[in-house]
Amino acid sequence: MRDVRAIALGALVVALVVVSFVVDLPGVDEIRSWIRGAGAWAPAAFLLLCAGGTAAFFPKPVLATASGLLFGVLPGAALAIAGFTAGALISFVIGRLLGREAVARWLGGSRLRTLDVVFAKNGLAATLVLRLLPVIPFAASNYGAGVTAVRPVLFALGTALGLVPTTLVAALLGDAVLDLGSPRSIAALAAWLVLGAAGVLWGRNLLRRAGGTA
Q1: pLDDT of 37-72, one tens digit each?
Q2: Which residues cross the membrane (predicted)?
């Protein structure tokens, strides 16, 4: 399933590059002019989209990248982080309401047991790792966290802090998405790879200490 998603994401990137050369796309300034014309409704709607999309398993990188394109790097990243954190908490609460048995059927017993141990020992650190590079997919981890021992306040804090680096990088990429060959877009892609590698190493170490694999 993950291989299929990776292939699909790669195909989407290639398609966007081809479209950018073939189609006369509106510029960033023009797009943001439309957004400004919508007034306060635009950021409010985007924040709600990020929150609802997170709970509904909509791909987070798409929304994070869109935030930079629509609102600029810092304002866009702030909106996305707030929306993703709200969506993660919504999922967390739903997971607790559904109960452990329902979530275990969804995620798998072994994954949930590993998350139990990881969160019990390193609630804040475990949440940070999940945001850098999920041990399980972002949306699913939010539901799973709801039936573990992690405290809601640590989960919320870890989510907000952990989302900062990856969301900023995605927003930077979104800000330059119509100029994919520019130095800043290449730098953003490189930074994303570095963050991903750091998340893999940190996550493996955390799981090794927990005595299991996800």
Answers
A1: 888 899 999 999 999 999 998 888 889 988 998 998
A2: 6-26, 38-58, 70-98, 152-174, 186-203
